[in-house]
Amino acid sequence: MIYVDGVLFPEENSSSSFSSSSQGSSLLVNVMTHPVIISASESFKNLEEQRVTESSTEEDRYVYIFQREYAVVNPALVDFVGMDEATTCVGLVIRNRRSGVTSIAHMDSPKVVDLGISQMLSLVLEDDSDASDLDVHMVGGYEDVDIKNGGGGGDYAKPEGYSFPLCCKLVETLHKRRENFHIQTLFVLGHNTKLDAQGNTCPIFNGCLVNTSTGAIHPASFNRSSRCPDDLVRRVRVSASFEDPSWRGKLLDTYDAKTDRFIIAPCCWTMRLVEYVWELNQLPDELILVNCSTSPSAEGPDFVDNERRIWKYLLKYPEWSKTFPKRQPRVFERTANGSWKIY
């Protein structure tokens, strides 16, 4: 169930019908155009983007997640949790108001939403109860295609692009579940869209950072050294998970809330993927953008470099068992100075 400004949404007397195939899109548009959500989006847009560096992680305890990952964190062990590098992806945050336990995911496809939200809620709900009040924030996704909403009068039955179908699925899934989801931030699509110097649409913000003690959320970006630990293997895992049937429809297990350790679950890949990335690595940078990104004009300056880093790793270690011997996870524990060491 979805609440906006403390009121169940849609209201019981609403004449809207959400039984059709356009359920998610109609619901999304109605929530996005709610005055409280519009006001929250304007406030979020005016916040200064927090830039997280390695020095930041030395002062406070951070957990960072990559694409298709999720983490549930305990505010007694973690000060901040965040993500970035989202263009057509969406950062989803769910926080238990009473306990402060916070779950965050970097959603990249409607296919992982149903199981992914169940994974996110595994430690957020108290005593398997669905009566907890849960605050929800969504940041990311932008108008990567023209969406003529006309105040909700357009045809949303067959949305195109990547951002819109993902946002529809997220809102629809939350609406159908029994838990009480209070939408606080919906900074997606039109709320999160600007024009670049060439007139292309792109996101205003690509990430977010949550203070686990207060629940406050800010736009954020992370530099390479703060996207840790094991950043390269975790990026490889995102690419390889599409081939690994054990991760079909799921978010990638990454962090253990009880021990404050990164437990990076194993993922396997095939020689087919290795051969494919060898071919991709021969392409010039401009073709890599076109072939490997859902939003070529909106990617950050290090996108191609990160892709090549992934491919070089796969070419160097074509056998997945070298990375995950005996299909065991890679475990990292936090040190006294805030860095991570392999356990």
TrEMBL record:
It holds the Pfam family N_Asn_amidohyd. One of its GO terms (molecular function) is protein-N-terminal asparagine amidohydrolase activity. The gene is LOC108835758. This is Protein N-terminal asparagine amidohydrolase isoform X1. Transmembrane segments: none annotated. It comes from Raphanus sativus (Radish). GO terms for biological process: ubiquitin-dependent protein catabolic process. It comes from the Eukaryota. GO terms for cellular component: nucleus.
